[in-house]
Automatic annotation (TrEMBL):
Membrane topology: Peripheral membrane protein
PANTHER family for this protein: NADH DEHYDROGENASE, NADH:UBIQUINONE REDUCTASE (NON-ELECTROGENIC)
FAD/NAD(P)-binding domain sequence ranges: 122-454
Name of the protein: NADH:ubiquinone reductase (non-electrogenic)
Gene name tied to this protein: LOC123185122
Family: Belongs to the NADH dehydrogenase family.
Length: 560
């Protein structure tokens, strides 16, 4: 019976070779078919390769040009030489199997295989942040199947995350499940959400390699790994907090980018308030426990300091009267706070924070110890809670990818958000930046930048699908992409606490425009963010939380 299958495979190879090579010059499909046929019974993968090889003909029909030979050689034959595996995938392959050939180990992984000619092209999206979720929201699922791979199943509305740390808002008010943003992920047969981390990308084979984010012993293996084939790949994996390689930051500081980090800050803050009331503690120890230090004077650091000051002035003084005079907040910044804002607004923020108990320190952190910070001038700053908010940089995953990099280490893209050195790969959000060859500046890591890039790319994919099957792999070279992506800054906002905020609606520092501060700015800040929250459900939650806090104060219950 095995010989029968081999014979049928040989006949199919001959038939497909004749079809693929019609017209004189050998095509990539024909070359790949001849290679597969030459393997014959020696390769256990040869007979299973013809489905993928048949798809190579599509690349020939679409005029993929130079890209077609890559598709034929790598997607056509399962026994890919190990040299074609990405650096990030090679150790993964070594762990998956004890066999001598890493390619066989990778081939043994469970997978979501290549799409057939009768299927919709598949778009794989890495990430669930602002850029990824805006793309998922707008992508046309009647044309594409969508697969989202992310270690979290929700999007975080980061501008309001600081408010959750002190109980102004509940955590569920600032998160939106990915399946609500794009219902096709939960309902369409060809679309999926995978709770996993992407650990490697093979741009030649059009595959991503994933490891399940939350390991569970109930799965067949732990860690559980799999691979997903794509027609188009959108990398929107975000960035990681910058630590500047300062010793002790990773071990002792808490970042403020995810909900679990906000929960950790809230637990630590409330725990320290309660522990400080225990008998026998010295004055120095009480002051250390109740000293909250924020490193980084950007919008996140300033807004958290303002929220913390509000919490202390309004709630702590009433509910922790025994230790109210020990609670202090210090904001450490190497340069000027809110450096992207107008000079007058920066001065207003400085005066306001100082007036309501936030001590501003200009300095550079040299080392972080478990109970104190050491500054470059030798000053030691004891702390009970340390929040680190000094900006973001490329993640280890982005650094590991063998793709061109823009200034700053992000994935390099052109004016259409494509990664120009490989086919069918796009990058957007905090993990991407324009290459120097585009003569465009690298855009700031802001939510509004990521959101507009996601919206633009969804429209671009719609154009690709409408033109001669451009949505499929290797078929996007000869389509009209329309206008390139253009970013226009609409302004910045930041709350500084006590019903005050800053609003700067200028395109840049040197441009003219509206810049204001005070109560009216605070009303504008809240109104703008209330309208930008992803769903009506969350808008209702946020409005109710704000009203509840105004009437009853913040919740100081420690859970967990």
């Amino acid at each position: 019976m095995a010989w029968s299958r081999i014979a049928r495979s040989s006949q199919l190879s001959q038939s497909l070779s004749r079809i693929a090579s019609e017209g004189g010059a050998p095509t990539p499909a024909a070359s790949a078919l001849r290679n597969a046929a030459a393997l014959g019974p020696r390769s256990r993968h040869a007979a299973s390769s013809f489905h993928s090889l048949a798809c190579v003909g599509l690349a020939d029909k679409c005029g993929a040009g130079a890209g077609g030979h890559l598709y034929g050689q790598n997607r056509g034959i399962s026994a890919t030489p190990s040299r074609l595996l990405p650096a990030a995938a090679e150790p993964l392959a070594a762990e998956c199997s004890d066999t001598e050939d890493p390619a066989e180990a990778m081939a043994a992984l469970p997978d979501l295989g290549p799409t057939g000619l009768k299927n919709k092209p598949r778009v794989v999206v890495l990430g669930s942040g602002w850029a990824a979720c805006r793309f998922l929201k707008d992508v046309d699922t009647s044309v594409y199947d969508v697969v989202c791979v992310s270690p979290r199943n929700h999007m975080v509305f980061t501008p309001l995350l600081a408010s959750t740390c002190v109980g102004t808002l509940e955590f569920r008010s600032v998160v939106e499940p990915v399946s609500r943003i794009q219902p096709a992920l939960a309902t369409r047969p060809g679309s999926y959400f995978f709770l996993a981390n992407c650990t490697g990308i093979d741009t030649r084979k059009h595959e991503v390699y994933c490891t399940v984010a939350a390991g569970d012993e109930q799965l067949p293996t732990n860690p559980y790994r799999f691979r997903v084939a794509y027609d188009k790949l959108v990398i929107a994996s975000g960035a990681e907090p910058l630590t500047f390689n300062i010793k002790g930051v990773q071990d002792n500081a808490i970042f403020l980018r995810e909900v679990n980090e906000a929960q950790q800050i809230r637990r630590k803050l409330l725990t320290n308030l309660m522990l400080s009331e225990n008998p026998g503690l010295s004055e120095a120890e009480k002051k250390r426990l109740l000293h909250c230090v924020v490193v980084g004077g950007g919008p996140t650091g300033v807004e958290f300091s303002g929220e913390l000051s509000d919490f202390i002035m309004r709630d702590v003084r009433d509910r922790y009267a025994h230790v109210k005079d020990y609670v202090k907040v210090t904001l450490i910044e190497a340069n000027e706070i809110l450096s992207s804002f107008d000079v007058g607004l920066r001065q207003y923020a400085t005066n306001h924070l100082s007036k309501y108990g936030v001590k501003l320190v200009k300095g550079v952190v040299k080392e972080v110890l478990p109970t104190e910070i050491v500054l470059s001038d030798g000053t030691h700053v004891p702390y009970g809670l340390l929040v680190w908010s000094t900006g973001v940089g490329p993640s280890e995953f982005v650094k590991s990818l063998d793709l061109p990099k823009s200034p700053g280490g992000r994935i390099g893209i052109d004016e259409y958000l494509r990664v120009p050195s490989v086919e069918d790969v796009y990058a957007l959000g905090d993990c991407a930046g324009f290459l120097e060859s585009t003569k465009r500046p690298v855009l700031p890591a802001l939510a509004q930048v990521a959101e507009r890039e996601g919206k633009y790319l969804a429209q671009l994919f719609k154009k690709l699908a409408a033109q001669n099957g451009g949505g499929r792999a290797h078929c996007g070279k000869r389509v009209d992409l329309g206008e390139p992506f253009v970013y226009k800054h609409i302004g910045s906002m930041a709350s500084v606490g006590r019903y005050k905020a800053l609003v700067d609606l200028r395109e840049n520092k040197d441009a003219k425009g509206v810049s204001m501060a005070g109560f009216l700015s605070w009303v504008m800040w809240r109104s703008a963010y209330l309208t930008r929250v992803v769903s009506w459900r969350n808008r209702f939650y946020v409005a109710v939380n704000w009203a509840t806090t105004l009437v009853f104060g913040r919740d100081n219950t420690r859970i967990g």
